[in-house]
Amino acid sequence: MTPKLLVKTLPAALLALGVAGAYAQSAPAPASPQSQSPSPDTANSARTLPGKSARLSHAEREFIESTAKDGMAEVELSRLAQEHASNAQVKQFAERMVTDHSKANEELRQLAQEKGVTMPAGPSHLENHEATKLSKLSGAEFDRAYMDGMVKDHQKAVKAFEKQASKAKDADVKAFAAKTLPTLQEHLRLAQTADQTVGGKKAASR
């Protein structure tokens, strides 16, 4: 290239370099991976943390669910007893059941919510069947059938709560079981006494 041609092309080259440099300074730098906005999938996965129920063992989750069903059944059957029972001791027992189990059911509902366990909608199919059978009875016949069921149900409940009160790994489940156990043990004693009073089958087998 001749010196004259070089003189003519140099300003144009410098101008082009200047424009490119200015553009490079004004153009935004590519966002780093850390600064990029998360995709909807990423954002959702970040918000979806493992539920607290994941910390519970299968036995602990089953304990909460079965206890909820049984507790609802106790209240339903005992309200039935307040209407159909003829023995004053049975009626008094039923009133105590409604009060104590309604309170325990609410405490269990809060525990289930904290642990991410879905509470059942109501008693089990078997318990609903028992309620239907009881609703067809009255007087002394009702008293015996109701108290027999209360003794059997509370024997089962005491065993389940004793197990969780001593062996549950989750501190909250263990505390709930330990707190409620004495009340259930008292219920069992009251049920056995009332059952004996009305001549129930469970009292005869003691």
Contiguous helical run count: 8
In the CATH scheme, the class would be Mainly Alpha
Which range best describes the helical content: under 10%, 10-25%, 25-40%, 40-55%, 55-70% or over 70%?
Answer: over 70%
Please report the total strand number as a whole number.
0
Mean pLDDT rating: 81
Helix/strand order, N-terminal first:
HHHHHHHH
CATH homology-level superfamily: Ferritin, core subunit, four-helix bundle
The best one-word shape is elongated
What does the secondary structure layout of this molecule look like, with pairings?
Elements: H1 3-26, H2 40-47, H3 58-84, H4 88-115, H5 125-135, H6 139-167, H7 171-198, H8 201-204
Helix pairs in contact: 3-4, 3-5, 3-6, 4-7, 6-7
Which structural traits does this protein have?
single chain; 206 residues; mainly alpha; Ferritin; elongated; disordered N terminus
How would you describe this protein?
The structure is a single chain. With 206 residues, the protein is an all-alpha fold. It has a single domain, classed as Up-down Bundle (Ferritin). It contains eight helices and no strands. The longest helix is centred in the C-terminal third of the chain and has 29 residues, at 139-167. The radius of gyration is 35 Å and the shape is elongated. Mean pLDDT is 81; it is low at 2-11, 13-29 and 31-53.
Outline of the structure:
The protein is mainly α and 206 residues long. Helices cover 77% and strands 0% of the residues. It has one domain: Ferritin (Up-down Bundle).
